[in-house]
Design a protein that fits this description.
This protein is an alpha/beta fold and 423 residues long. It contains 12 helices and 19 strands.
């Protein structure tokens, strides 16, 4: 059996690996000049390690990561640390990553803190996400935690990530974020490129092919039409790319399957990667949530407060990121233009920061970076095996109720491979 896979992100590569292990002939097509999708990276001349275009880490509970890396022989490349997570409120940075940090948080009364802490603990230890699926986080959280804690802590984060869709986000998604989060975070020696390279090596070792810089133009019955209008034959097809791109490749539209795909919504993301001589977040914070709706970005991540700067030429690396609808003007702007818009807000966080304090390494953007999760989402997720002959899907929309990430991309790739093998 020959299986074609569109998309060399972690899901596509994982599916290719698990299929190859079973003797399936696999060919993976990727329009970019690199593999890895949202986990892909770049490297400067004076760096020992590459750096992801978008910030990444793993959790101690990421079972699929550990199982796969053990098979690949790279489990010893994973290490864990306990970086600081904080929130930015009223012009100040407040640690917010432990019960003690919550007790010291100055904006809530003791009673409000205890009540919110009890709610967070109940979310953390409750294994049943289904009970949260029928309501939104915007409705449930104020009732459980109280209006003030919700407005100060959680509403700005929901609005920062989902914008106008914030009131529509399922409480099951919020449950999953709390359930998964841990104080310790993991990373790979050599960055996530270590995982990507290992997958590529194993796929190619058994005869699989990875075609980079190869964009699929159309999907026909058991044929892919690529850049040069060359037809590639296959027995089964796995599309591990955003759903809206899949629709553009298919020859048919207007049916129930196409309508179900169109109903799925996503939001885009933009990331500036900056280099500086000194840490931007001088208090040691790694992850800083911006709880201020006036800011044009929602998170600042000081990567080198988590990973030693020595791997990046002894420079400090900072991510500045946000989520935006696909028609947002930022997607048409240069990295310098976006930096100029972000600069006054970065100076609100660190008044000593100036235009001359950093070099803009990279502007990363993705129009389909995160699914928008409404209530009763489990009822609208399309199956991996679609009604169309020989076509399978494995997208971020299939990662539910969990938030998208490398662990669930691997899990989805394995699930898609099993689904293909069963037909």
């Amino acid at each position: 059996m020959k299986v074609a896979i569109i998309g060399a992100g972690i899901t596509g590569l994982s599916a290719g690996y698990y299929l190859s292990k079973k003797g399936v002939q696999v060919e993976i097509f990727e329009k970019e000049p690199y593999a890895g999708g949202l986990a892909a990276s770049f490297k400067q001349k004076d760096w020992q390690w590459p750096l992801e275009f978008f910030f990444h880490h793993i959790f101690p509970s990421d079972k699929a990561v550990f199982e796969l890396t053990k098979e690949l022989g790279i489990s010893d490349k994973i290490f864990f640390r306990r970086p600081i997570t904080s929130v930015f409120i009223d012009g100040k940075i407040h640690p917010f990553d432990s019960p003690l940090a919550l007790l010291k948080f100055p904006y809530l009364s003791r009673q409000e803190k205890l009540r919110m802490g009890a709610v967070l603990a109940s979310f953390k230890f409750n294994p049943y996400w289904q009970i949260f699926e029928k309501t939104t986080a915007a409705k449930l959280l104020p009732k459980l935690m109280g209006k003030k804690p919700y407005q100060i802590l959680w509403q700005p984060l929901l609005e920062g990530k989902f914008g106008k869709e914030a009131d529509q986000i399922s409480a099951a998604w919020f449950w999953a974020r709390l359930k998964k989060r841990s104080a310790k975070l993991g990373y790979f020696q050599g960055g996530f490129q270590t995982l990507i390279d290992a997958l590529l090596k194993e796929i190619e070792k058994v005869g699989g092919k990875i075609q980079l810089k190869t964009e699929i133009k159309k999907v026909r019955s058991k044929q892919l039409i690529i850049n040069s209008n060359t037809a590639i034959k296959f027995d089964q097809l796995l599309a591990a790319i955003p759903t809206h791109i899949i629709l553009k490749l298919l020859p048919r539209s207007g049916d129930k399957f196409a309508d179900s795909i169109k109903s799925l919504k996503t939001i885009g993301a933009i990331n500036l990667v900056l280099r500086m001589k000194k840490a931007f977040l001088a208090d040691g914070t790694y992850w800083l949530n911006i709880n201020d709706s006036s800011f044009p970005f929602c998170v600042v991540v000081q990567h080198t407060n988590f990973i030693d700067p020595k791997y990046y030429g002894k420079n400090h690396v900072l991510y500045v990121g946000g989520y935006y609808p696909q028609n947002h003007r930022y997607f048409k702007m240069t990295k310098e233009e976006i930096f100029q818009e972000f600069l006054p807000y970065l100076q609100k966080i660190n008044p000593n920061f100036s235009y001359l304090s950093s070099i803009i390494y990279h502007l990363s953007f993705n129009l389909y970076a995160h699914p928008i999760i409404p209530v009763n989402y489990s009822q609208i997720i399309p199956p991996i095996k679609t009604p169309l002959p020989n076509l399978h899907l494995a997208t971020m929309h299939h990662v539910y109720p969990w938030d998208r990430g490398v662990n669930y991309a691997i899990e989805l790739g394995r699930k898609a491979a099993n689904e293909i093998l069963s037909h």
